[in-house]
């Protein structure tokens, strides 16, 4: 399974004739190839996978993905709590 993460484009520039940009992922900025999304503008959101922006999305869709990812993290914490409870009950 491949996971694309939404981020907000904060800057665009050309590097060796390739459209690149800085994308903010909730406070962490990364350099991303924007060549597959040449229509993207600063302030818009993109789905990024392994350093490539694959699709431009609107802010509402980006927020849905952020919420989904937050919920996944909550589920992982539940699994950890259950494992700890099982461990304690065997002691």
Automatic annotation (TrEMBL):
Could you identify this protein by its name?
Answer: Hydrogenase isoenzymes formation protein HypC
PROSITE patterns, alphabetized:
HUPF_HYPC (PS01097)
Family from the record = Belongs to the HupF/HypC family.
Q: Which PANTHER family match?
A: HYDROGENASE MATURATION FACTOR HYBG (PTHR35177:SF2)
- Superkingdom classification of source: Bacteria
Output one GO MF annotation: carbon dioxide binding
Entry's Gene Ontology BP terms: protein maturation
The gene is hypC
């Amino acid at each position: 399974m491949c996971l694309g993460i939404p981020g907000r484009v904060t800057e665009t520039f050309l590097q060796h004739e390739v459209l690149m940009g800085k994308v903010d992922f909730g406070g962490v900025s990364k350099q991303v190839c924007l060549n597959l999304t040449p229509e993207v503008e600063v302030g818009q959101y993109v789905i990024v996978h392994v350093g490539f922006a694959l699709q431009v999305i609107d802010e509402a869709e980006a927020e849905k993905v952020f919420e989904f990812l937050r919920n996944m993290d909550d589920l992982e914490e539940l699994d950890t709590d259950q494992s700890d409870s099982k461990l304690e009950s065997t002691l």
